[in-house]
Structures are given as C-alpha cells and as structure tokens.
Design goal:
This protein is mainly alpha-helical. The protein has four domains: about 90 residues; about 30 residues; about 130 residues, no CATH class; about 60 residues, Herpes Virus-1. The chain is built from 15 helices and five strands. The strands form two sheets. The protein has a three-stranded antiparallel sheet. Strands 3-4 form a two-stranded antiparallel sheet. Helix 1 runs antiparallel to helix 2, helix 3 runs antiparallel to helix 4 and helix 6 crosses helix 7. The longest helix has about 45 residues. The chain is flat. It starts with a helix and ends with a strand. Bound molecules: zinc ion. The site of zinc ion has 7 residues, from loops.
C-alpha cells in the first residue's frame, strides 16, 4: 500500500506540473495568435501599393522574435516535464518487485494439457462475468469444446441477475419457482425474499394498489407461513399504513435499497450451490490468494537465498511457510500430524489407528517396528497394517 501511495504522489506531481504548463502555454499562445492576427489584419487593410515604414518593419521583426522566443520557452518547459514523468517510472521500479518468477514454478503451467486447463478456467471466468463475446472468442481461439467452457448455467444466471439489478423480479421468481424443491432442500429462503420484494413494491405505490397487494399476499404467502410467519405478519402490518405511505411508517426498513443488493447476493449464492458451482470465480480466488501470498513469499525467498537453502522450495508440492488467506480462503479441513507437526498431504495422508487416534502415515512408519506399533497417545499395541486411511 505504501508503495502505491509513493507512486501516486509522483503521479500527482506530474499532473500538477502538466496542468500548470498547459494553462501557461495556452495563455501565451493565445496572446501571440491574437497579436499576429491583428498584424495580419492591418497588412490586409493597407493599400496594395503601400510600402512598409521602418517603424512597421521594426514591429514585424519584434513579432517574429517574440514567436521564436515563446516556442523556445515552451519547448524547454516540455523538456523539463520529461524528467518529472520519468521519475514516476523510477518510483514504480523502486517500489514494486518486477520479477515474480522466483516465486512461481515453471512446470505448473507447462504442457498442452495444463495450458488447455488454464484456458478453460479463464473462459469460465468470462462466462461468469457475463462477458460472453470475449469468452466465445477465447473458446474459439483456444479450441475449447462447448462443454469445457461451461457456458450454459452462467448465461442464464447472468440474465436473471441483470434483471434483478434493474429491479425486475420476474425472471428470478420464475427460476426460483422452477427450482423450488431443490432450493427448499438446501434451506434457501430465496423464493420468499423475492416475493417479499414484489409485495413491498405493490404497497409502496399506496392505496391505489391495495387490492392487488392483498391478492398477491393471498396467492403467494400461504406456502411460506411455516418458515417465515413473523416476516409475513410484519408484511401484513404494512397494509395499515397504506394511506400515509410506508415511508413514514415503522415498516420503512422494507424500502431499504440494500435489500436489492442482498437479493442479488442471495440469488447468486443459492443458485450456485444448487448448480454445484462455486460462488466465486475460481480464477479470481486464485489471483486474490496469489496477491495475498506474494509479499510473504518474496520475503521468505529472499531469506532462503541469503541462507542458500533455495533447493527446498522446488522439491515439494507445498509452500515453505504457512500463508493465512483469511476465513474466506478456507475450503476444506486440514489435518496436521500431532507427532511430526506437519500438515498432511496426499503422499503423507492421515491414518486412523485401531484405538481411534489419528496420526500421519510418515509418523506411523517411523513409530512402528516390524508389525508392532505402540500408539503414542493411549498406548495400545497394534499392528500398523490395521491403520486406516482417513479422508477429510
Ligand atoms: Zn491410541
């Protein structure tokens, strides 16, 4: 952040100078143009056989000199600007690390299979964002098959979301109704929230739409009474305040514009869960995690290089330090072996001993002698072959 601020200060300096020079230049140029224009007019007005007097020649010479001087001054100003601009470049070089190659592993993206996978993820990201034309162009150029891009669910979801953003509930209600059972199975209140917004839209318009609002409530709310009885009671309360308007009632929180932001969120989450898609684009999750991890990785890399232990970085499928991406970046449980104090991995999975204690496979191998193993915790004697692989 500090690096960004430093660069921004340099950019501000350039902009300030730019503004000053631009103001000054246009003022000076305007003066000169006016002056020349007047001289030209005088020359034009003079009779055709008029000869210039020495005084007039002097004025013309002065004008020519003034133009030459001004152009020179402006060129100098312009040259000085260059040094200020180049300072920005230097500030960027000084404050940002240009070479991130040291923190990445080349083999991760090499090979046609991996490139294809990468293209697929990028393509999916564009479909998610509703940038269909870019996604299709990429799919075409990268030779992705239609199903690899996963276009279908996103184009439908994006259409519905676009409608929600302009407060059109129709397509979302239709979708929620069509998927009612699956939504209820995952305990979603999406459909109720959509109907609630629709109802609030009717009562907001005042007494003129009272009958319509009552009819809407009668048609749609009974099915939600079990789960949302309190909310429905409160929605019915709004009918009392129709004459004076909901805005001046204790129910004015129902007009909160944030409810529209919330509904887009609820829709995205519930629809993604239902379709088995992650809520966030995998590409943005990766990039955000990478940006969070980068400073720590660059630091540790430097330390490792100083101590000449670079080798241990590339050898393993894991990072040399633990990086906390926050609660949002945690997707599954991890198991750290209580004996070796290492996070378990595919090559060193957790195993459950006969007594119920869980340690890592490496620890098991280290602790067992022949076909005997004493649990380090209880300590029950057992055969290491009886230990079972545990899946989280
Ligand atoms: Zn045990």
């Amino acid at each position: 952040m500090e690096a960004c601020n430093t660069v921004e200060r340099e950019v501000d300096k350039v902009l300030l100078k730019f503004g000053a020079i631009s103001d000054h230049a246009s003022r000076v140029l305007l003066d000169i143009i006016n002056h020349i224009f007047n001289l030209k007019k005088e020359l034009e007005d003079a009779p055709t056989d008029h000869e210039l007097t020495p005084g007039q020649i002097h004025i013309l010479k002065q004008a020519i000199n003034k133009v030459r001087e001004t152009v020179q001054l402006l060129a100098t100003d312009h040259r000085e600007l260059h040094s200020t601009v180049s300072k920005v470049g230097k500030a960027i070089d000084r404050n940002f690390v240009a070479d991130f190659a040291s923190t990445s592993r080349e083999d991760v993206f090499s090979g046609p299979e991996k490139v294809q996978l990468l293209n697929q993820v990028i393509c999916q990201h564009f479909y998610r964002q509703g940038m269909l034309d870019i996604a299709e162009e990429l799919a075409k150029e990268a030779g992705l098959k239609a199903e690899e891009g996963n276009k279908e669910p996103f184009s439908e979801l994006n259409k519905i979301l676009d409608c929600l953003k302009v407060q059109d509930l129709g397509p979302a209600l239709e979708w929620a109704c069509a998927h009612r059972e699956s939504l209820l199975a995952q305990n979603s209140s999406l459909e109720f929230k959509l109907h609630r917004l629709q109802f609030v839209g009717l009562v907001r318009d005042g007494p003129s739409r009272q009958a319509e609002a009552v009819q809407y409530a009668r048609t749609h709310f009974p099915q939600f009474v079990q789960r949302h009885d309190k909310e429905i009671q409160s929605l019915m309360g709004t009918l009392l305040y129709l004459p004076q308007g909901i805005k001046q009632s204790p129910y004015n929180h129902l007009l909160d514009p944030n409810l529209w932001v919330e509904i887009c969120d609820v829709f995205t989450r519930d629809a993604c869960t239902l379709l088995g898609l992650s809520v966030d684009s995998p590409l943005s999750v990766c990039i955000n995690s990478g940006c969070t991890a980068l400073p720590a990785l660059l630091n540790i890399k430097q330390v490792m290089q100083q101590r000449q232990v670079t080798g241990i970085w590339n050898g393993k499928d894991e990072l040399p330090i633990e990086i906390d991406l926050g609660a949002e970046g945690r997707y599954h449980s991890v198991f750290a072996c209580p004996i070796l104090r290492q996070q378990c991995s595919e090559s060193n999975p957790p195993v459950r001993l006969v007594c119920g204690h869980v340690i890592s496979r490496d620890a098991l191998n280290k602790l067992s002698s022949g076909n005997k193993l004493k649990c380090p915790y209880c300590p029950v004697e057992q055969n290491p072959a009886d230990a079972r692989h545990v899946y989280f």
